[in-house]
Specification:
alpha+beta, Cyclic Phosphodiesterase, Chain: A, 6-stranded antiparallel sheet, 4 helices, 10 strands
């Protein structure tokens, strides 16, 4: 049976979505227009058509039991030399993302991953070392705070672009958007 490729992630609200997409474009990252800025909860996963409804119900139940939380992104970090990636790390909301990831990657989505879970937002991937250095230096002072209101199921199209398919708002309410620094 043919499979479609899905992922689950926390998307970034504006203006952060636009800012980090713009950085990826300026750095020449070929994924800039195909992969929106996000914090992964489930990496790319193949699902057969008859699995999608079960997975959506699984995600709905998880989201219904959650409340909104603050996510704070700050600075730049890298997975080099293990992986050619520069990212913006989380400094707040890490344990919330870890809890969500464990719940999402259970039941019908239980699977092993290649690396331990480390919530982050990728800004440069598979680029030459000089471009990764530029990304690391340029984003050293990056700072963004926003409330996470839920998560989204994305599907990769035949053109390689990841598109949102369904939002799963948390049962505790809350609205997306920037948070003013304390």
């Amino acid at each position: 049976m043919a499979q479609r490729e899905f992922g689950v992630a926390i998307g970034l609200p504006e203006p952060y979505n636009r800012e980090l997409t713009s950085w990826r474009e300026r750095l020449g990252d070929p994924n800039a227009s195909a992969v929106p800025p996000h914090v992964t909860l489930l990496p790319p996963t193949g699902l057969a058509e008859d699995q999608i409804e079960v997975v959506e119900e699984h995600l709905r139940v998880i989201a219904a039991g959650e409340r909104d939380f603050e996510l704070h992104l700050r600075g730049a970090a890298t997975f080099r030399p293990v992986s050619p990636v520069v990212f913006v790390p989380l400094v707040r909301g890490i344990s919330d993302c870890e809890r969500l990831e464990q719940q999402v990657r259970s039941g019908p989505l239980a699977r092993e991953t290649a690396f331990p879970y480390h919530p982050h937002v990728t800004v440069a991937h598979d680029l030459p070392e000089p471009a990764l250095d530029v990304a690391f230096d340029a984003l050293a002072c990056y700072d963004a705070r926003f409330r996470v209101w839920g998560f989204t199921m994305f599907e990769r199209g035949a053109d390689g672009v990841w598109r949102p398919q369904r939002d799963f708002p948390f049962g505790g309410g809350g609205l997306p958007g920037p948070v003013e620094p304390a």
